[in-house]
Inverse folding.
């Protein structure tokens, strides 16, 4: 079955699209990536999305317009990859609230599935998080069962570390990828990935840059270790998994408070970026200390995997682990999340559960997503 996976993450840097030929059933799936591309958001649309994510006021009419514009952008990305049997669209998260003892979680992705189906004349699955949330889960991260199916190793303990706007991990004990996956697979959000670094680069460059290429700017500075230790005291990092987070916590307001602290210490812009980058690495390493055991290797993906300075810091702080890219295990690190949602869509189409309760904390396995059929 040819499935197009569409993904835009918390970095809000554009839409990743992958056309994937998926075969097999259940967790025993095989894939062939037939095409992939990234479509950047227009500067205006990205600005609007980031504004909503940071809590700016918006009317319902503006939300409806934004919902339409995102869906149109997603549909156009899918159309560039050619015909498919199914589209699986994650959409664009604008708000994520983890569950508490008092209420269920809440997660809102824009980019209407019905409009994508209409524009592409292709069945479209979207709204993947709601069923897991209704079952008491975090609704995130959803990619770990796909990681298990595609990246488990028969003898090695692996971690898959996505570094998008927010970071998340999947711990994969040895598995030969037949039958049911091991029951001790876990995963959770590790904290900020690129979100704070990107925010600072945008601020310091007055909007001319959106990210720190290769970590070159941060590499010119010196991280401030006491400040990193102070930031690691944030309650999220002490919270046991399952757990998830987003820009609601690690967004512009958080970045602004961090920058104010840095200014009282006379940190330069490069020192601050070095500190934010080292902080991201420290949050990942902190999460790994909560695993059943350290992995033999860490496979990086997402935009942050291309930050050579960050990757080097992770390798230094995890000396017993081999830090590589998912590319080295046969899965394109640039499009892994889009590929994952293609498989989640495939599972929904075949009524196979898409969540792992050990990851999200849901009370039961759930069929994830809603299908929208095109109307002629």
């Amino acid at each position: 079955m040819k499935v197009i996976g569409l993904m835009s993450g918390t970095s809000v840097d554009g839409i990743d699209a992958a056309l994937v030929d998926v075969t097999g059933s259940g967790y025993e799936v095989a894939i062939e990536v037939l095409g992939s591309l990234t479509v950047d958001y227009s500067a205006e649309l990205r600005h609007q999305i980031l504004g909503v994510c940071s809590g700016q006021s918006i009317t319902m009419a503006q939300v409806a317009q934004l919902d339409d514009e995102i869906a149109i952008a997603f549909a156009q990305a899918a159309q560039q990859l050619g015909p498919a049997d199914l589209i699986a669209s994650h959409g664009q998260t604008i708000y994520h609230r983890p569950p508490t003892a008092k209420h269920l979680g809440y997660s809102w992705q824009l980019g209407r599935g019905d409009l994508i189906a209409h524009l592409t004349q292709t069945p479209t699955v979207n709204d993947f998080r709601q069923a897991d949330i209704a079952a008491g889960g975090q609704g995130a991260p959803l990619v770990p069962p796909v990681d298990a199916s595609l990246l488990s190793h028969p003898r090695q303990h692996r971690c898959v570390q996505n570094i998008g706007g927010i970071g998340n991990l999947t711990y994969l004990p040895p598995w030969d990828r037949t039958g049911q996956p091991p029951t001790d697979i876990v995963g959770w959000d590790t904290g900020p990935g690129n979100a704070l670094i990107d925010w600072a680069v945008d601020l310091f460059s007055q909007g001319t840059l959106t990210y720190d290429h290769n970590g070159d700017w941060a590499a010119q500075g010196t991280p401030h270790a006491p400040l990193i230790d102070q930031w690691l005291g944030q309650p999220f990092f002490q919270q046991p998994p399952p757990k998830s987070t987003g820009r609601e916590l690690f967004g512009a307001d958080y970045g602004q408070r961090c920058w104010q602290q840095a200014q009282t210490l006379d940190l330069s812009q490069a020192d601050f970026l070095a500190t934010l980058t080292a902080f991201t690495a420290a949050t990942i390493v902190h999460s790994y200390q909560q695993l059943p055991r350290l992995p033999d290797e860490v496979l990086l993906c997402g935009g942050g995997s291309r930050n050579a300075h960050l990757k080097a810091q992770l390798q230094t702080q995890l000396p017993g682990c081999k830090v590589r890219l998912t590319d080295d295990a046969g899965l394109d690190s640039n499009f892994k999340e889009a590929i994952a949602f293609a498989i989640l869509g495939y599972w929904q189409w075949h009524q196979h559960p898409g969540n792992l309760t050990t990851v999200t904390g849901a009370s039961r396995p759930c069929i994830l997503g809603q299908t929208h059929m095109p109307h002629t």
